Every structure is written in C-alpha cells, then in structure tokens.
C-alpha cells in the first residue's frame, strides 16, 4: 500500500495518519507470544539504572511497531515477573512519546501497579500528573484504587485520606466525588483489614457521600477478611437496621465467613435462607461451600456440592475444580484429586496457579519428592510459570529434601522465561547451594538478581560474603560489594514513603 503525502493538504494529512495506523496495526500482528517473552526477558536482563534503557527499547521495539495490546501484554508480563518497577515506567514513557501509540487504561494501570508495589510513590504521582495533562480519560476509579491501596498498606491513615482529597481536588478536575469514589476509599481500608480506619471513614463521611448496599457489602467483606464472624454478624444486623436489603453478595460474604471459621453447618443454614429469600446462589456461592466442606474434611459433601453445579444449570470453572481438589486433598484423597485435575484437562478447563499449588501441597504430604517431581516436570512441559507463593514453596521443598539441583533448575527456568524471582526464593536457593559448597552457583544467582535491578537481602549478602572470604575469593567478593553499593546508590530502597506535597506543587507550578 502506497500513500502519496502532501503536507499542505488536510486530506493528505488524514491519509498520513491512516498510513501510520495501518502500519501500526500491520506490525502489531507480527508480535507473537514468543516475541513478547523475548522483549520481557531483554527488559528484565537489562542493567538499568546502571545503563539507560531507552536505546535498547528503541532498537528492539521500533516506534512504528507499537500497539496497545502488545504493550499491555509486556507490562502484564513484567508485573508477573516481579520486575523492577522503574523499567516498566521507562517502557511506558517511551510509548507515550510515539505518535503511533495510543495508551490504554490497562497499560496505565499496570504501570501504576508495578511502581506502587515497589513503593516508588514519587514516580506514581509523577505519572498521574503527566497522564492528567495528556490523557485524562485514563484516570479512572480503578487507577485511583490501585494507588490508594498501596498508600494505605505502606503509609498512615492520615496520608491515605490526604491522597484521596488530592485525587478529588488536583487529579479528577471538574468531577464531583460521590458514592462510587467513597466506596473506593472504604474498600481500600477494608481489603487491608484496617477495619477501625474503614469504620472511621464511614462515620466521618457517610453524611457527605450517601452509602448504598455496595458500601455496606464492602464493609461486611472487610470484617469477613479480618476473620471475626461475630463482627460480621453485628455489622450485618446494623446494615439491616439502617434499611439496607441483603442481596446475593451479602449472603456470599456471610457464608464465606462461616466457612473460613469452620462453622460449616451455619454456612449451610445461611445457604438455605438465601434460597428462601429468592437470592439465587451463584457459582461463587457453591464454590465457597465446597471450600467450607473441605475445611471440615467433609469430602463427601464437597463432591455432592460440586456435582450439584451442573444440576443448577451452572458450569464449573477452574475455581470450582480447585475447591473440590482442595477438599479431597484435605481428606488425604490425593488420587481422586489427581483424577479431577485430569478431568479439567479433558474438558479444556485451564489449570491456574491455585491448581498447581494445591496439588503440590497434596503430593508433598502423600507421595513426597517423587510425586512432586512428576507434576513439576509436567508443569514445565506446559511452559506454565508459577506465581511467587508456589515458587517459594517449591524452592523450600527442593532444598530441604536434598534436591538443590531442582531448586537451581527452577531458578534457571524462571530467569529464562524473563522472570525476576522473588528475593525469598533467592534466600532459600543461596542457603541450599552454599550449605552444599556450591558457592559459585549461589554467587551467579545473586548476581543475576542484582543485574536486573533488584536488591538481594542482607541475609544473602552476608552469607555469600562469609563463604567467599573462607574461599579467599576476594575478587568475587569485591564484585558483589560493588554491585550492591552501586545499586543502592542508583536505586535506593524507598525510605520516605510519603506522597509529599511537592509532588503536586512542583508540577502545578510548571
């Protein structure tokens, strides 16, 4: 396709834009999963901030080849890979400079999430201010929730309220905050199990922002997550007294609260009450009850509930299968759980991280190292990348069972996949390797972490230092010390997590 462009013509300028869109779309089709993984690995392996990342991005991802889906996939992979948040930020900034790229809410939110998770709050506000000026429609309730949740987790109650207020006055310009924004703030404290703070916000602001049933369910969920069934029931009666009619979500929360505390009989009673109240149970309701049956080791009831799913014209999903497998494993019926996992495969229902984590736990307790190795091999054959919780569990199991070679194999597999394994996994692996005299391999793993712009723990540093001194490997010790010092200088661990008024004042003065 050829476009003849005359800059003086409005028509031709539109043709020029069409050409850019065409080329962008054409090239976006070229990005396969393999190519996305390659780019993620290049970004993770890059020694940023020791060396600038921008030239590499320009070389590996031509501006004309940028597409919305492509960047979303890369950022999603960087998030899952525990990548250095500033690398993701560099990528997103590079994309924003391109005329070919239109940023999406998803890409913006993923970048925010990666930065906030690592507590780079000054960069978070810097990014928000930039997007406010260029693409204000990308700033949504979800992005606000991501930022406030991390502030609530790592900062004080007052700082979280201050951030909420600044969102209203400085970020969401021209928009009057109402019940939806109020619900976001309530959810932020409730999901962090900060129920005194959540109640304080409710009592302080419910006159300004009229609460609805969603508000009450969020608070009820918070009490449930804190593990206090009594508090759940007290607040439930309080919401009814205030005139709110319970809905399906309300019942699901209460049922889950009883299940998690082992009061399965009370959960079944509520289930029956729910049906009498004409609140149709959902797949989530049944899945919750299956979990509850498993917690009291009633695998017969769990299987009955699982079989009832199709009878209710519902279709079991990965979560329902996981719940049933967990119930079987708690009753030491690992064989039936394995059969259920195979049934998922036959029905085309994907195994997720919970599936593997649940099965690994069951196999560790019943078949030991041999059973775990068999499932581990299958997982790798399917190119499945486990999440941090499962990685740490496997690493600990391998090292404690004298199979540090498998721990190293898992580490190398993750690195090859473009992951930056969690520091807990490195702690376990370095301990296992050093205790068996494999200090050189432990040093290499630590170096891989540092090169990727992630800090190793003090435990790892001191352990390697001790062994390297004993071996008189002073060159390697010097290299380790220099890399650690340089990373701390270039990328200091966040100390002051305050959002700071300067984050707004400096930008507003420009």
Automatic annotation (TrEMBL):
- Gene3D superfamilies per UniProt: Tetratricopeptide repeat domain
Q: Which InterPro entries match?
A: Mito_RNA_Proc_CCM1, PPR_rpt, TPR-like_helical_dom_sf
> What name has this protein been given in UniProt?
Pentatricopeptide repeat-containing protein-like
Record's GO cellular component terms: mitochondrion
Protein source organism: Dorcoceras hygrometricum
GO molecular function list: mRNA binding
Which Pfam families does this entry report, sorted A to Z?
Answer: PPR, PPR_2
| PANTHER family cross-referenced by the UniProt entry | OS04G0488500 PROTEIN (PTHR47934:SF28), PENTATRICOPEPTIDE REPEAT-CONTAINING PROTEIN PET309, MITOCHONDRIAL (PTHR47934)
Its transmembrane ranges are none
GO biological processes: mitochondrion organization; RNA processing
Matching PROSITE patterns: PPR
The UniProt keywords, alphabetically, are: Repeat
**In its keyword annotation, does this UniProt entry include Repeat?**
yes
Map the PPR repeats onto residue numbers. Answer: 212-246, 247-281, 317-351, 352-386, 387-421
């Amino acid at each position: 396709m050829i476009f003849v462009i005359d800059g003086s013509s409005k028509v031709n300028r539109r043709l020029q834009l069409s050409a850019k869109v065409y080329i962008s779309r054409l090239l976006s089709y070229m990005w396969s999963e393999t190519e996305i993984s390659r780019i993620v690995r290049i970004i993770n392996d890059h020694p940023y901030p020791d060396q600038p990342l921008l030239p590499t991005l320009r070389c590996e991802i031509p501006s004309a080849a940028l597409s919305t889906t492509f960047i979303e996939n890369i950022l999603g992979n960087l998030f899952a890979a525990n990548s250095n948040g500033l690398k993701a930020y560099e990528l997103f900034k590079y994309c924003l400079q391109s005329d070919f790229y239109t940023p999406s809410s998803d890409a913006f939110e993923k970048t925010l999430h990666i930065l906030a998770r690592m507590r780079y709050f000054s960069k978070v506000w810097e990014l928000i201010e930039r997007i406010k000026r260029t693409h204000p429609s990308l700033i949504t309730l979800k992005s606000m929730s991501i930022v406030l949740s991390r502030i609530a987790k790592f900062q004080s109650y007052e700082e979280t309220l201050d951030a909420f207020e600044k969102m209203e006055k400085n970020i969401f310009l021209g928009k009057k905050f109402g019940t939806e924004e109020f619900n976001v703030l309530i959810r932020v404290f409730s999901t962090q199990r900060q129920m005194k703070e959540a109640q304080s916000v409710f009592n302080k602001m419910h006159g300004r922002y009229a609460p609805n049933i969603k508000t009450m369910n969020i608070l009820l969920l918070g009490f449930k997550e804190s593990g206090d069934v009594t508090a759940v029931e007290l607040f439930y009666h309080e919401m009814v007294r205030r005139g709110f009619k319970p809905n399906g979500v309300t019942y699901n929360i209460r049922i889950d609260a009883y299940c998690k505390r082992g009061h399965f009989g009370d959960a079944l009673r509520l289930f029956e009450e729910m049906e009498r109240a004409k609140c149709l149970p959902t797949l989530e309701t049944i899945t919750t009850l299956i979990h509850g049956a498993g917690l009291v080791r009633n695998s017969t009831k769990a299987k009955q509930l699982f079989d009832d799913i199709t009878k209710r014209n519902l279709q079991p999903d990965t979560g329902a299968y996981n719940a049933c497998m967990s119930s079987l494993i708690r009753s030491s019926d690992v064989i039936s759980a394995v059969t259920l996992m195979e049934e998922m495969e036959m029905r085309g229902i994907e195994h997720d991280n919970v599936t593997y984590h649940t099965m690994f736990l069951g196999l560790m307790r019943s078949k030991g190292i041999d059973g775990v190795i068999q499932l581990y091999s299958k997982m790798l054959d399917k190119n499945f990348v486990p999440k941090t919780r499962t990685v740490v569990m496997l690493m600990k199991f391998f090292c404690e069972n004298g199979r540090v070679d498998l721990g190293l194999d898992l580490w190398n597999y993750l690195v090859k996949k473009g992951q930056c394994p969690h520091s807990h996994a490195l702690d376990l692996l370095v301990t296992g390797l050093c205790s068996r005299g494999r200090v050189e391999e432990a040093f290499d793993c630590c170096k891989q972490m540092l090169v990727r712009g992630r800090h190793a723990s003090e435990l790892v540093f001191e352990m390697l230092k001790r062994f390297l001194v004993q071996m008189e490997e002073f060159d390697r010790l010097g290299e380790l010390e220099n890399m650690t010092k340089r990373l701390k200088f270039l990328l200091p661990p966040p100390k002051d997590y305050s959002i700071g008024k300067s984050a707004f004042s400096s930008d507003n003065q420009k």
